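Researcher: Structure prediction, please.
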Amino acid sequence: MKRSSIAIIGVGAVGSTIAYTLLAKNSVAEIILIDVNTERCDGEVLDLADCIGFSRTSRIYHGTYQDAKKADIVIIAAGRAQKPSELRSALLETNKAILKTIMEQLHGLRHDALIIIVANPLDTLTYYAQQWSELPHSQIFGTGTFLDSQRLKHFLSSFTQIAVHSIESFIVGEHGESQVVAWSHTRIAGNLVEQYGITEKMKQEFSHVVKTQAYEIIKAKG
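Model: Predicted structure follows.
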């Protein structure tokens, strides 16, 4: 079976972490890194290439948009990062312009390629990517509230001391201020959350912490 090729556009903190994770999980045969900061991109390639001996990935290199057009999956992580206390929506105009430039250079992608957006504001940029690409909308998507859902499961696990793998929960809506926890579908070891003493007030507190967790991370890590 053919092993896939993944192009990552934008190799800052998020993009480089994705590349490392792909290497560590033996998920892909070839990784292509692209960034406007070519020196940074070269440095990431040199650093990550040391992992190839421990991975089934055969090649990681600093590529071009022509290389990306041949990839099975294109991950777009390029964009200005959030500042402490800054809302994701404040990034829209800057990151929308960056995304438009990227999408223009991706015209001619293989017809079965997938595009995954991980830049913020995530849902809005995913919408624009769908409008600017010749690919079907079903082949262009963002990571949505997947990360938020994982954060919620972690907090519930810490509170109940039950393994996170035994918790089922998800957040709906946008990856941002209007997200909503689907409490009625949340189960801890198969049980309703109320059986673990979680009150309506605590649900609101959990929801708030999950929604604002990114700001705490940015404040601490920069």
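Model: DSSP finds seven helices and ten strands in the chain.
Researcher: Thanks, that helps.
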